[in-house]
Amino acid sequence: MSLYTVESLRLAYPARRLFAGHAVQQVLRDLSFTIAAGETVGLVGASGSGKSSLLRCLLALEPRAQGCIRFQGRRLRAGSVRALGWYRRAVQYVPQDPVASLEPRMSVAQIVMEPLRRLTGETAPLARATEALESVGLDHRYLARRPHELSGGQAQRVAIARAIVLRPQVLLADEPVSGLDMTIRAQVAALLRGLCAEQGMGLVMVSHDLSVVATLCRRVMVMEAGALVEDRPLAALLAAPHHPQTRRLLNAAPPMIAAASSQGFSNETAEQSPDRGAGTCPSRAARAGGGPAHPYCASATAALGAEPPVG
Ligand SMILES: Nc1ncnc2c1ncn2[C@@H]1O[C@H](COP(=O)(O)OP(=O)(O)O)[C@@H](O)[C@H]1O
Ligand SMILES: [Mg+2]
């Protein structure tokens, strides 16, 4: 069974003055797609194309949404926090601006423990919070810190620790690495890649940056003006983009990604590489055994200015 089944999803906002003459502004136009468990999906498109709106709909945070979104066959309806408790345990969210998303008066430990307390009633959450922070490379010394004492990259990692502490089936992330400097960006991308490859976590990630998508996602959904204009495996999309908007995004991408697409780097499909599982990259174990990095990981990681992680 699909994890997500989306049918005829539509979203309209009351028109702003700019759109005078139209009663509503169509932001999502009749989107239908499915997402399987463990799938890694990059959501790309120009600014204003509806990426964040789609993510909000998937999070069941958009009461104006029309159409139908099911998660594991159960219909999601925005607005009922209590009725969606089961969903909030299965799915976590990494917001675009980590610093703004962290409660300034809480310590890092309290921030990461909060979802455990709220959603599971866990009585001894400190050990799990500490473990989650360690998995994002922050040791016990960070437990007592407050958000203002963190760098942007550290705050982003705290937001990710908070999101992964419940071991979600899928992580919905809105530009999780944008705004980070190159070194931290590569580090956080490697962390997310590891979680997908090693824990089978699914990922739906909004990004305006195709090089980041190429390091993390096996499938790419391209949006333009609220419509889904291309939805294909990453390798096939890079090798032969179908839609003009995809070509525009590729032309604007870092040189390594553009080169990969123009060379027809690979026509690998998910079916041809069942050993790779959910992630774009081979597992850590495979790499430790001397297996090569996925070519897109290598090219994209080069575009990000860092070596792919080992061990
Ligand atoms: N709360 C809102 N009220 C009215 N219009 C909105 C709101 N949020 C987003 N929009 C509009 O919806 C469109 C899509 O926005 P968004 O989903 O944020 O795009 P993206 O994330 O791709 O940049 C934009 O035209 C934006 O102005
Ligand atoms: Mg957005």
From TrEMBL:
Report the PANTHER family cross-referenced here. Answer: TRANSPORT ATP-BINDING PROTEIN (PTHR43776)
Q: Which SMART domains match?
A: AAA (SM00382)
Q: What is this protein called?
A: ABC transporter ATP-binding protein
Q: Where is the composition biased (Polar residues)?
A: 261-272
* Keywords assigned by UniProt, alphabetized: ATP-binding, Nucleotide-binding, Plasmid, Transport
Q: Which residues form the ABC transporter domain?
A: 9-250
Q: Which GO terms describe its molecular function?
A: ATP binding
Q: Where is this region: Disordered?
A: 261-293
Coiled coil (residue ranges): none
Q: Which SUPFAM superfamilies match?
A: P-loop containing nucleoside triphosphate hydrolases (SSF52540)
Superkingdom classification of source: Bacteria
